[in-house]
Amino acid sequence: MTVGNIAFPDISPLAGVKLGAAGAAIKRANRDDILIIELAENSVTSGVFTQNAFCAAPVTVAKKHLQANLASKNKRAIRYLVINAGNANACTGARGLTDALTVCQKIADEKGVAVEQLLPFSTGVIGELLPVPKMLDAIPVALADLNEANWLRAARTIMTTDTVPKAVTRQFIYDGESVTVTGIAKGSGMIKPNMATMLAFVATDARVAPDVLDRVVRLATGKSFNRIVIDGDTSTNDACMLMASGQANLPEITVCDGKLYEGFLATVETVFTELAQLLIRDGEGATKFITVDVMGGGIETECKRVAYAIAQSPLIKTAFFASDPNWGRIVAAIGYAGIEGLDPAKVSVCLDDVLIVDKGQRAATYAEEQGQRVMNQDDITIKVDLGRGMARHTLWTTDFSHDYIKINAEYRT
To answer: What integer pLDDT is reported at residue 338 of this predicted model?
Structure first.
């Protein structure tokens, strides 16, 4: 069940990017769980990764290979990404690193490229060793399946507790030529910003210099995947990759300036943001899509701390599940967010267009029926004004339902 309808978009092939999937029965049979993404020669790849100290083996390998690519000045451009679902290959020590490299080496041997030109990714249960023989058997099947039209199959392959595949595609026109940005993402739980917070793979046919692409992925992540929270947990495996195949008939974007750069950045930010919001709408057990918009801070960090205090409060999240306008829980979260010198008499809180707290106390115009009307909606915005400056921060979250507990209690079964 999702909050609102999540329809998979019609996606046109993106030149220079092919996707292939196969089943290796990693966690269960009768589903695709190995995805391979093939990039055209001289493609440029950048990404951000989890900041969890227990980062998974594939994260370690992928970061090392990206650094090697950077050192070679793209002479050994990343050509393949391999993603498996059902097993995180995290907390698996030296064996986990060897297994990730073995999977990469199989593809390198099959396609005649260097192992450093591959990036591995995994998602699933932590602490289990990869079933490498099964994966090696499935890789030739996935390679044979490579096709520019396989976006839906790819999105389904990387799912874990997701209930629907997620993708966004957008285009912009520059000098009469079209540039496409298309991405898929997975993640329904263990979601909290601390870099990315899920797996996301976004590709474009634009020609982009490595340093520019790196800046774009970080700017876009900061406005999207780093602004979602479901349960306050940051995964060991999170990664968000942006890949530029360079096949569009346009000049290379070499500086962070000008209309071509601005159009590209805006389109990537749109794709990232819409994917991030889809993850929230398909959050584990979610029945509400909640926007937390905090303004009036002296600096953005203050607004961010208040937004997280609200978004991660189990009491607030369970009240929203019950459609209970218990606004006292919101006020309490603002108060314990740790904003030094906060004056409650300057704070106001709204649920959508309904003013519930004015100057630190229940608004004279507020009636319970007004709050109940808003709480009965699927999409709700909590607006907080701290009354101490011009800074602002917005993030997106969900409620906590019975199903969230059930899904996570039964995750390994």
So the answer is: 95
Active site residues: 197
CB contact set of 302 (below 8 Å; sequence gap of 6+): 339, 386, 388, 389, 391
What band does 196 get if pLDDT is binned at 50, 70 and 90? very low
* pTM of the entire predicted model: 0.94
pLDDT higher than threshold 70 for residue 408: no
| Segment 339-366 mean pLDDT | 97
User: Tens digit of pLDDT for each residue in 54-108?
Assistant: 889 999 999 999 999 888 877 789 999 999 999 999 999 999 999 999 999 999 9
Write a three-state SS string for the chain: CCCCCCCCCCCCCCCCEEEEEECCCCCCCCCCCEEEEEECCCCEEEEEECCCCCCCHHHHHHHHHHHHHHHCCCCCCCCEEEEEEEECCCCCHHHHHHHHHHHHHHHHHHHCCCHHHEEEEEEEECCCCCCHHHHHHHHHHHHHCCECCCHHHHHHHCCCCCCCCEEEEEEEEECCEEEEEEEEEECCCCCCCCCCCCEEEEEECCCECHHHHHHHHHHHHHCCHHHEECCCCCCCCCEEEEEECCCCCCCCECCCCCHHHHHHHHHHHHHHHHHHHHHHHCCCCCCCEEEEEEEEECCHHHHHHHHHHHHCCHHHHHHHHCCCCCCHHHHHHHHHCCCCCCCHHHCEEEECCEEEEECCEECCCCCHHHHHHHHCCCEEEEEEECCCCCEEEEEEEECCCHHHHHHHHCCCC
Distance of CA 400 to the CA centre of its chain: 20
